[in-house]
Amino acid sequence: MPAPDSRRPELLRTRLQRVLLLLPVVLLMLLGLGAIGGAHRLQAEIGRAQLSRAAQTLSTALAAPYDQEGLRGAARTFFQLAANQQGLRRLRLSDRDGGTLLTLGAYDSWQWSGPLARLFENLLYRYSNSQGTAAVYGPEQRYLGRADFDFIPGMIDSAQAHAVAQLRWTGYAFLLLGLVTLPLYWWLLPLLRGAPSWVQRADPQPQASARPPDLLSMLGLFRERAGAMLDSVHYALVTADGDGRINHLNVTAEKLCGWALAAARKRMIYSVFHTVNENDAPLQTALETALQKGIDVPLQRGWLRARDGRRQPIEMMASLMRGNDGMVIGAAMMLRDVSTHLAEVDDLKREARLSQAIVDHLEEGVLITDPAGVVRFANSRAESQFGYSRAELQGFTVTKLMPVPFLNTPGLRITDYVMTPGSSDRGQHQLPSIVGWRKDATTFPIELWVQQLRTEQGESLVLMVRDISERLRGEKIAMRLGRLLDAAVEEVYIFEAQSLLLLEVNRSARRNLGFHPEVIARMTLLDLAEDLDESVFRSYLQQLGSGSRESVVFRCRNRRADGSSYPVEVRLNYSRDEEPAVFMAIAIDISERLAAEERLRHLAHHDALTGLPNRVMLLDRLEQAWLGTQRGDRMLGVLVLDLDQLREVNERLGHEIGDRLLKAAAERLQATLRPSDTVARVGEDEFVVLAPGLRSVEDAQLVAQKLLDAFVQPFAVDEQQLDVRCSIGVNVYPVDEAGPEGLLLHAGHALREAKQSGGGRQCAYLAQIDVPRQRQLDLQREVSAALALDELSLQFRPALHEGTVRALFARLVWRHARLGEVGHGELMRLAQRAGIAGQLELLQLHRAATFCAGLREAGLQLPDVIIEVSGWQLRSGDFARQSAELLQRYAMPPQRLLLALDGEGIKALQHRHPRVAELLASGVRLAFADACPPLPPPIEMPVQLLLTGRACQSVDQITALSAAARRRELNLIATQLDDTQVLSRWRGSAVAVAGDAVQKALPYEEALEWLRQRPIEPL
Question: Which residues belong to any copy of the PAC domain (predicted)?
């Protein structure tokens, strides 16, 4: 870079050239301004002389003794003569009070109107004329007024005016010439400027030139020198014009993209540089982004696909290039291959993994924390010590992992354990011992070394954690535990594994219990816990002693010496290292927690104002009542009640009175209803009543009438008698077959009808009940009685294959005296709603076993008996136990019984009771009812028989299901065949068939004789 003294003559010469160029322009402008100023001064002098003469002439012409009317006439005559001879353009006469008498002008014929037109007229007179004023006197020199006039001065003295005009136009010409020359100066000025600083930095010793270089040549020179400089540091340089066409590539850029400069010049940037992201999707180059958005693009990463197909990682950035006028003329992009850099990063990562592997194999746990004790790194040994994963440990504090002594020793810091230089034991004998806290709440003693570590990220602490459980046995463990027990806030109990007698109890436990230490020494936890079952407690101890569980948590109530009790949560641990082995129980008083939980539960399910259940609890109770009604023969009443005058009370007396009225209304509702009923508040003035166990719709209407009668008596609120009535909408299930939400909705419709009818009354929701629905309601009410009165009978539907009986389907039917026969499917649906489906399924099995006993006595071979069973029966052991008892009582071989399950039943097999597994192991088989392709996987469907229904009757379905049965080696029976055409399709598949088209169902009494005449071959 040249020194400042060497550049001073060049700068002076450049400035002198600028001044010489600007001097002619300034002189021309000064001459023009001087000529214009002189013309203005001459014009002013001529105007003053002419004004004086014009005023004298006007005064003489109007000096005759006129009155005002005569003065107007004389003025008109004078204006006409003076306009032609002296250039008078406008004349205005005013009286001595300033009022205008007459105005005459050369532009009066234009008929000016409006303020803007008057303003334009005045400007026109003032711009083209000279102005003057003359006084007008009457007889005896009496002052009459004033005359204001405008005239063309050139008509008075045309020679002088012509000379002044020529001088003025000469000034205008000089001024215009100077203004025209000024842009020429600004155009020549850049040619006198020196090269930009960035060009001088790129070319510190420029060659002498006869003329200043232009911008394009300077850009070319910069590209060459900058490109060579970037080549030396392995950076590629690409420049392009404003359209994105390449102007220059340095050598590194040519190597990266695979294009030579000659071939790439004038090509679009995206046709040479193919950039993609890590997913190989097209990515816009930084140069294109800069030109498109008009901004500089910071460093970003991507992948460059070269001309030969190579794909290499790059970093790129771009900057806009601007001309002297500030306009964008192109952009420059720098990029470099970062393959080597990424390889170095991978090497560093491998070294880091190797270092971490070495640290992980240390016997001590290693924790790296910040000065505040927050864990930033943990090795594998630390993970196993504390029971947390490495990700969980990061962010933990040392006080959480080692609460003792940091939480119960005020002022103690982790830095107190830092090793001093040259010390081996770091004086740790003077510091409290440390106890680690595992994830499962078990503890272990720790020996800790702390060392300060300074890194680029700042100061850190390295903690070497060693589990010293094995070292601190015997008395040291007892002493440490004693201090820990007394300092703990929780209640801590240590008792023997054999006798269960308490060995040690901490201060907190003694204070809460109130027993004397000698009394506590003769007690066990069973003596303290008043609601803890001994068998359950010993099962906990057995689990801990066997090692199947690390700890057990349970809740109970501890008994105090004064007879009171309080709830506690107990964590039970087992210590095998003690001789003899002991158990440790840590109990926490949870009285406040339970009270808070109870308050939260109450607020979540009750209205804060009235204490009644809210909508959440209402919906839960409604669903439970709805399900209970389905299983029984009673009805459920849903009543929606609205206070008619509550809004008027709020507006007239205020919301405080309205709130008290709501409380009183809630209390009156509760007092009117049965204990089994539920009343809930679901809106500002809306309540819902659930009345289960009703026998008819009339019962629900009777409940509604009782509520209406309860509101007849006025409410006494703050010494005021408030007469408030209510309207009620009534709905009854199962008269209305809707679900819980639908019942509420329909009751709301009935409420609106009651309010529209005037309020203070009830209205029932009228559900349309057709004859089939009425039949269903009657059957549902009577099905339980039919079971109790033994009105159900068993029928058998045989499954035949080429005339041979392969199996019998056992099904119950109900011959109703008034409503006719109720088939098996309808009967089972009624039983499910009444909650007696399980009893009917056991009844089927009982009668089928009795029938098989009769066949055996008749000397006939027993066919397979298929009975449909609900899936939920497999989750309990009662069904399996009773089935096994029936099979044993009637000597029915288990191999002859098949239990048919639907899809839900197949899913229930995954959670079957152990007794069900024993029943299946005895020989009882399973069948999949209503099978249809595609079938579930064999693992999820451990069955031996497939039963089809009406859903599988097409040729394609029959073919697919038959092939699947053969492939899995399963028996197949086509059922519910009522059509002979479908029957012929199934017979072509060589499977057993059953249905009305094969053989109608046989009553229990006729089935035995029918089987005597048929060959029987079980599946």
Answer: 550-602
Q: Does position 312 have pLDDT exceeding 70, yes or no?
A: yes
**320-333 per-position pLDDT tens digit:** 988 877 888 899 99
Name the helix (H) or strand (E) containing 858. Answer: none
pLDDT at 201 > cutoff 90: no
Q: What is the rounded distance in angstroms from the CA atom of residue 408 to the CA atom of residue 285?
A: 61
Q: How far apart are CA 470 and CA 478, in angstroms?
A: 13
Find out whether the peptide bond into 580 is cis, omega within 30 degrees of 0: yes
Q: How far apart are CA 671 and CA 677, in angstroms?
A: 11
Q: What are phi and psi of 317, to 5 degrees?
A: -150, 160
- Cα separation, 734 vs 625, in Å, equals 12
* Band (207; pLDDT cuts 50, 70, 90): very low
Helix (H), strand (E) counts: the chain? 35, 37
Token pair recorded at residue 383: 């993970």
Phi and psi at 569, nearest 5°, equal: -110, 120
The DSSP code for 560 is P
The Cα–Cα gap between 426 and 462 comes to 15
Q: Tell me the C-alpha distance between 1011 and 804, whole Å.
A: 10
pLDDT at 126 over 90: no
Q: Where are the alpha helices (DSSP H) in 687-790?
A: 697-710, 740-756, 771-788
Q: pLDDT tens digit string along 216-256?
A: 555 566 666 677 778 887 889 999 998 999 998 999 999 99
User: Residue 623: which H helix or E strand, with range?
Assistant: helix 615-631
| Spatial CB neighbours of 155, under 8 Å, sequence gap ≥ 6 | 86, 87
* Strand extents, DSSP E, 678-744: 678-681, 686-694, 715-717, 720-722, 726-733
Asked if 848 and 865 touch (Cβ cutoff 8 Å), the reply is yes
- Apex 1000 CA angle, 995 and 1006, nearest 5: 140
* pLDDT tens per residue across span 727-775: 999 999 888 888 899 899 999 999 998 988 888 899 988 766 566 766 7
C-alpha 1008/C-alpha 478 separation (Å) is 82
d(CA 1008, CA 1004): 7
**Domains defined for the chain, CATH in brackets:** 21-166 (3.30.450), 220-337 (3.30.450.20), 344-467 (3.30.450.20), 475-596 (3.30.450.20), 609-768 (3.30.70.270), 791-1012 (3.20.20.450)
Measure Cα distances from 519 to 509, 513, 561, 970 in Å.
13, 11, 10, 71
Indicate if the pLDDT at residue 575 is higher than 70: yes
CB atoms within 10 A of CB 948: 28
C-alpha 583/C-alpha 538 separation (Å) is 12
Amino acid 333: pLDDT: 92
Distance (Å) of CA 390 to CA 357, 375, 379: 14, 10, 7
Q: How many CA atoms lie within 13 Å of 374's alpha carbon, on the beta-carbon side?
A: 5
- 427 pLDDT exceeds 60? no
DSSP per residue over 321-342, as a string? EE-TTS-EEEEEEEEEE-HHHH
Question: Is the separation of the CB atoms in 502 and 494 below 8 Å?
Answer: yes
Q: What SS3 state is found at 961?
A: helix
Using the Cα atoms of residue 283, residue 286, residue 292 and residue 297 in order, give the sign of their dihedral: positive
Write 81-88 long-range contacts (CB < 8 A, 24+): 82/57, 82/58, 82/151, 86/54, 86/57, 86/151, 86/155, 86/156, 87/151, 87/152, 87/153, 87/154, 87/155, 87/156, 88/54, 88/149, 88/150, 88/151
Whole-model pTM?
0.35
Which pLDDT score is estimated for 159?
43
Quickly list H helices, 62-114: 68-85
CA torsion, ordered 498, 500, 502, 508, to nearest 10 deg: 130
